[in-house]
Amino acid sequence: MLDREGFRPNVGIILLNAQNEVWWGKRVREHSWQFPQGGIKYGETPEQAMYRELEEEIGLRAEHVKIVGRTRDWLRYEVPDHFIKREIRGHYRGQKQIWFLLRMCARDNDVNLRLTDHPEFDAWRWHEYWVPLDVVIEFKRDVYQRALQELSRFLTWPANGHDRRHHGSRYLRQPHPPRPNPEPPGSVCGPADEAPAKNDG
């Protein structure tokens, strides 16, 4: 489904934990990292597509997250010709995206990269909000920067500075240790329009 200018409607997802760190996924068998994203199907709203992609790509459902904000307008990027299938060259130009900022209300072990037979990611980690754009495929970097900048206004403390802790990556084939059931979402997430205060203790 393309618009008149040749852009396919799409959603992007920036998922926050309680420390305002973002979910950062490594693409299967590649050395590039990115946020979850995916196309909007005919008849879907951007929000419906976001929940579907969230479940398909990282295994989280609507009850596992709370919407904090979204971009006001579409953010577009063009795809270089050598990444476009020959049969759609001349028609397809790239993606136009609505980006959602979500607060995760579940626990880390609720993430499931193997929910489908064709996973998008084989590892993930939490990363400081301002992700390193040099590990994002080049033609997406500008949109990532614009999405992060626009959505940062929903955070209650400046999302800059350095991550002072080391977070190991969670791999696709890494077994999940048994953990107790997660707390009810309302006890983990704060109100949708504010992030919890930073805890330096």
Automatic annotation (TrEMBL):
Q: Where is this region: Disordered?
A: 162-201
Q: Which domain of life is it from?
A: Bacteria
Query: Family, per the entry?
Result: Belongs to the Nudix hydrolase family. RppH subfamily.
Check the record and name the NCBIfam families matching this protein. PRK00714.1-2, PRK00714.1-4, PRK00714.1-5
Q: Which cofactor does it need?
A: Mg(2+); a divalent metal cation; Mn(2+)
EC assignment: the record states 3.6.1.-
For bias type Pro residues, the affected ranges are 175-185
Q: Name one GO molecular function term.
A: hydrolase activity
Span(s) of short sequence motif Nudix box: 38-59
Which Pfam family is an annotated match for this chain, by its short name? NUDIX
Record's keyword terms, sorted: Hydrolase
Query: Where would you find the membrane-spanning parts of this chain?
Result: none
* Gene (UniProt): rppH
Asked whether the UniProt record includes Hydrolase among its keywords, one would answer: yes
Q: Where is the Nudix hydrolase domain?
A: 6-149
Name assigned to this protein = RNA pyrophosphohydrolase
Which CDD domains does the annotation name?
NUDIX_Ap4A_hydrolase_plant_like
Family matches, as InterPro entries: Nudix_hydrolase, NUDIX_hydrolase-like_dom_sf, NUDIX_hydrolase_CS, NUDIX_hydrolase_dom, RppH
Origin species, per record, is: Duganella aceris
